[in-house]
Fold this sequence. Notes:
The chain is 64% helix and 0% strand. The chain has helices at 2-6, 12-19, 27-37, 43-54, 58-65, 72-81, 88-94, 100-103, 112-119, 122-125, 129-137, 143-152, 161-170, 174-184, 189-198, 201-207, 213-219, 227-234, 241-248, 251-254, 257-264, 271-277, 283-290, 297-314.
Amino acid sequence: MREEIRSVRATRERKLAICNDAASLSPEDRIEFLAILAADSDEMIREKAAGALLTQPLANVLAALARTGAAPEMFAYCAAEFPRRPGVADALAKNLGCPIEVLRPVVRYLSVSAVQELFEDLDRLSTSPALVAALVASSVVTAEQRNQLLELQQEQPASREAFVEAVEAAEPDRAKRETLLQKLSRLRVVERVQLAIKGTREERILLIRDPCKVVQRAVLQSPQLSDREVEGFAAMASLSEETLRLIGVNRKYLKNYTIVRTLMTNPKMPLEITLHLLPTITPQDLKLLTNNKNIPDTLRTAANRLQRQRASQRGPS
């Protein structure tokens, strides 16, 4: 029916029925068709469709924007006419079918959570330079997010020296090391992001130590990433605090006690994360923490306090 409305086959009466809510349509379908008719060649149809769209409940508009395969005309109309209505910009950003050129002008209306969701899909973000540019120019991103966006905009590959330490730690064979160094030093940041998401285990081990934080973040978004790999990452004191933080707040990884235990003993792990995780530690591992000289004094003190508290709750043996 969508194609019929777009084409000359749809009669004026049919279009008016949609505008006047006389057609048997779901609220979401009607909003889509009204958006198409708002660009109709007939001036009266255009005006009636635009007027009808203004009366649609916001919940129905958001539901229509959330649908897979929604009409491009609806995205364009809502971006142009309703960008400040609560949730509209977020709904446009969340729908992968929304064209980037439509989304770009409404970036400034995105919520903090919607921006965060964009960063949780670096596969999409790294292949959308126009969206990256719009986010960089906006005031809705944090300083850390802007830095990562600027990394995505870097056109020059990093120098070989930027990868030497990571390659030497991961690959003992000299010939293979040289091959890896040549490969990585030819890739731009966006290409390394794509490699981090879609590459091999060996490539992820290297790229988790990439000089660009956005590449490190991309490694953690790889659908091929295993818990065993994350356990290894959690033990790396060479990782950035931001990357360790991403592991420490990920609910999926926190279900793996080995990852949690390893994070607790990593001296680079942000203190607010380890203090939050401390109550989940077993008595045996808690005792080890109380004697661990590599962790911050504050965490060790908190571990001692928790151990005494648990002992007092058990009572005398």
